[in-house]
Structure formats: structure tokens, C-alpha cells
Specification:
Largest sheet: 10 strands, mixed
Number of helices: 16
Strand content: 15-25%
Number of domains: 2
Number of strands: 16
């Protein structure tokens, strides 16, 4: 049987103590079915660049990982990936750091990964590379002579051409994407932005069958919206009542309604705008004072990147201001938690909340929105308030879609969610639940791999 080779920035190496997340489980299942290799960064930083990957054999799967040197981690990961590509891909030009040393480090690590993976490959392997950290990986493998089928999936948004053009070396990024045989995006918007760049900037062509010709290559670019493992989330929510944290939440709420938000601490998530919108709700809809609380869970990430330290301080100040202004004896309007919770605990929190506030300024998909829907009690579901700039908005049409920059508009939507009649809540939930099941994690994985396996072996043109 043909092997699958998965390449990602981080590798979910089984250690017997922690359970991998949904995406990692989906990739591990594909590897278990096909046999193969999961290759990428170990998550560790060493004093120098490693000379060979660390190998762990687990049944039909080989986990091959590399430590990063301090310099590589600073330039490739903290530098170019997270301070240049991440803000550009999330339409935040003002936050992008265009540092040539970081760009050089980004290319250097991708070259290192390619050279370390190359000896492990077989002639008929299918190779699946993931996310913005490793866009040049495919082109580096082609330089080494790899002709196997290679696919790439972008988990973030792909920026509009006018945004991408602000990136020095944008042509290298686009050319690197065209080294793959299949390139997957989350939404039609992302695919359209890619097509615009190909036709208007690269002077390539988008054919009627969806194939793309550019930079001397022909490839397929397609939308593969990522999903969740629906049944696992449903089961976790249905069996969450006995969990201590869930019981504590229910005791604390009593007759108070709950709005929940769960996001990684990141400027793309629109948390400051969300806090302000909640304050606007309490200001202009005073009937909810003392009767509803927002619980925002935001575990910290990339804590050594300066922008993220500023976000945390700003949110703490906003939370303090809202609570200082509106709190009453026995009622705190905003609970801001810099903590992580297990998936079954979160499912219980979702099930016991009357609304979920997911308002990113830009997001590739946002799986929390789908997890919230899957966690609901079908007889008494909550309401999803969702940014139209999240990829999930392209599927969850029955959510209350909002512009996160419109503080008053978001407050109005929260009020509508809290006031919504039972029959309408059930109708909206049923519509969204169908969409969540139709784009499950398994379906995403199998549809991408099917497209990859149908791609012709790569041959340089021109």
C-alpha cells in the first residue's frame, strides 16, 4: 500500500500521557490506515542545528522530528512565520515585521526540513504538507528531485492580492505554492484571492476544470473546509454533567445566563472588540445587568512575542474597566480566564451557555464555532453569534452573523441571541448542525487525500 507522509510544523508524537487534538487525531488515523511518516519540529529548542531527525516507530507510523536551534526558532518560527506571515495572512499589515534575517531563517529551516526528510521518502509516497510555516517545503523537495505527489493545506486565510503584494518576496511564496500538485484552502474567498494573484500578478491561468497554470507548473487549487470530530464532541457534551468544573460553573451561574467565548490569545481573534461590544450591551440594554455574564477563555500563546504581551495587558485593562463599571454584589459581568481546559470540560461549558460569541477579525475557519454547535442540547440549544470574517461563516449561515468592528451591531446581535424564541433557536441549530456534520473532520481529510491521489505525478513544464 502507498504510504502517506505528513509534514507539519509540530508533530503530535504519542507520549502516553496527553491526548492529541482533533486535527492530530485525523492525521494519525490517515497514517495508521496507510502507514507512513509524520515529519516536523519536535517542539524542542537545542543549542545547535541537528544533524538527523529523531525516529520513533509506532506500528505502521514513523514519527520523525527535529529540534530547532535557538537561532532557527527565533528567525523561522517567532520571526518570519509569526511576525510576518501570520499578520499578513490575517490582513494586519500594520503588525507585520519585514525583517530580511527572519526571511532568510524561514527559507533556511524549510531547506533543512527538506534535506532531512528526503532520505526517508519512497518513490510512490504521497506527501501532505501543512500550513504557512512550511510553504517553501515543496519547492525545496522538488529541487532535490522529488516527483512524488505533494499536497499543501493552508489552515489560515489566504490574503487578498493587494495585501499579499505588500510582502517582500511575495512572488517566492506564490511560486512555492505552485510546486505542489494540490493546494487546499478553507473557503471560496481564499481560493479567489489565490486565483487573483495567479491571473493578475503571476500572469498565469485558471482553467475551466479548476486547474491552475503558473510558474511553469500545473496544479489543482480547491476548497476543503476543515471540520471537527462531531460524534466525539456530542458525546463529550452529553456526558459532561458529572465533571467538577462544569458543576461548579452551573452552581455559580444559578439564574444568570452565560455567554461564552473560547479563543487562543491572539490579535486576530478580536477579543478587545468583543469586550467593548459586551460593555455596549450592558450600557444600552440595561435589562441584562445582573442577568448575564460573559466568560472569555483565552489561554496564552506565543508569550515571547511582544505583540501578545500587549494584547494580554490590554484585555486585562478592558475587563477591569467593564467589571468596575457594571459589577453588582453577587454578580460579575465579565470573567476573563487565561487558562486551558480539556475538550470534555469545554463541551460542558458550551452546553450550559445560552450564547457563544465568536468574533475574530479574520480567521481561517474557527472550529470553536462548530464545536459549540455540536455541544448543544437539541431540545434547548444556545445561539451562535459569529463574525462574518471567520471561515465558518461560509457554512454556518444560521448563526447571527456580525461585523466584529461594529461594536453596537455586535451588542444588538447579543441582545437578539439572549431574547430569541425557543422555536427559532431550534431551527437555527438544526440548520447549523447539518452543516457541521456535512463537513466533518473525516470528510475533510478524505476529500483532500482523494484529490491528491488523483493528481498526476509531477513533471516540470517549460
Amino acid at each position: 500500500m502507498k504510504r502517506l507522509v505528513v509534514v507539519s510544523n509540530r508533530v503530535a508524537v504519542p507520549d502516553g500521557t496527553t491526548r492529541a487534538g482533533g486535527l492530530a487525531v485525523a492525521l494519525q488515523e490517515a497514517l495508521q490506515q496507510n502507514g507512513g511518516i509524520w515529519f516536523g519540529w519536535s517542539g524542542k529548542i537545542s543549542a545547535q542545528t541537528p544533524s538527523a531527525p529523531q525516529i520513533l516507530e509506532e506500528g505502521p507510523v514513523t514519527f520523525a522530528t527535529l529540534d530547532l536551534s535557538r537561532r532557527d526558532h527565533a528567525e523561522y518560527y517567532n520571526g518570519y512565520a509569526n511576525r510576518t506571515l501570520w499578520p499578513i495572512f490575517h490582513y494586519r499589515l500594520g503588525l507585520a515585521d519585514f525583517n530580511r534575517e527572519n526571511y532568510t531563517g524561514y527559507l533556511r529551516v524549510n531547506t533543512l526540513f527538506a534535506h532531512q526528510l528526503f532520505p526517508l521518502l519512497r518513490e510512490d509516497d504521497d506527501i501532505w504538507v501543512h500550513d504557512y510555516h512550511l510553504i517553501p517545503m515543496g519547492e525545496e523537495l522538488r529541487r532535490l528531485g522529488v516527483r512524488q505527489r505533494m499536497g499543501f493545506f493552508l489552515h489560515t486565510p489566504f490574503p487578498a492580492m493587494e495585501i499579499l503584494l505588500a510582502l517582500p518576496g511575495h512572488d517566492r511564496i506564490a511560486r512555492s505554492l505552485c510546486a505542489y500538485d494540490v493546494v487546499g484552502f478553507q473557503t471560496e474567498n481564499d481560493l479567489r484571492a489565490f486565483h487573483d494573484y495567479i491571473t493578475l500578478e503571476a500572469r498565469g491561468e485558471v482553467l475551466s476544470n479548476g486547474m491552475v497554470q503558473a510558474f511553469g507548473r500545473t496544479l489543482k487549487a480547491e476548497v476543503f473546509p476543515i471540520g471537527i470530530d462531531v460524534d466525539i464532541i456530542v458525546d463529550a457534551a452529553e456526558n459532561s454533567d458529572e465533571i467538577e468544573d462544569v458543576q461548579a460553573l452551573k452552581r455559580r451561574l444559578r439564574d444568570c445566563r452565560l455567554i461564552i467565548g473560547v479563543d487562543r490569545l491572539d490579535y486576530s481573534k478580536g477579543l478587545a472588540e468583543r469586550f467593548k461590544a459586551f460593555g455596549n450591551l450592558l450600557e444600552h440594554y440595561p435589562q441584562w445587568r445582573g442577568k448575564v455574564s460573559l466568560m472569555q477563555i483565552a489561554p496564552p500563546s506565543r508569550s515571547d512575542v511582544p505583540e501578545y504581551l500587549r494584547i494580554r495587558r490590554n484585555l486585562e485593562a478592558l475587563a477591569g474597566h467593564i467589571n468596575g463599571r457594571f459589577a453588582q454584589v453577587g454578580w460579575t459581568p465579565l470573567h476573563y480566564l487565561n487558562s486551558s481546559f480539556e475538550r470534555n470540560v469545554l463541551a460542558g461549558f458550551y452546553r450550559n451557555s445560552q450564547a457563544c460569541l465568536i468574533t475574530p477579525l479574520r480567521d481561517g475557519m474557527n472550529l470553536v464555532a462548530k464545536e459549540y454547535v455540536a455541544s448543544q442540547n437539541p431540545d434547548d440549544p444556545g445561539v451562535l453569534v459569529l463574525s462574518r470574517f471567520a471561515g465558518a461563516a461560509r457554512e454556518l449561515h444560521a448563526a447571527l452573523l456580525v461585523n466584529p468592528y461594529d461594536e453596537a451591531g455586535v451588542a444588538e446581535a447579543i441582545n437578539a441571541a439572549l431574547s430569541m424564541h425557543h422555536d427559532e433557536r431550534r431551527e437555527r441549530w438544526s440548520d447549523m448542525m447539518r452543516a457541521v456534520r456535512n463537513s466533518s473532520l473525516d470528510r475533510w481529510r478524505e476529500s483532500f487525500l482523494s484529490a491528491l491521489r488523483q493528481a498526476p505525478y509531477s513533471v516540470e513544464e517549460g
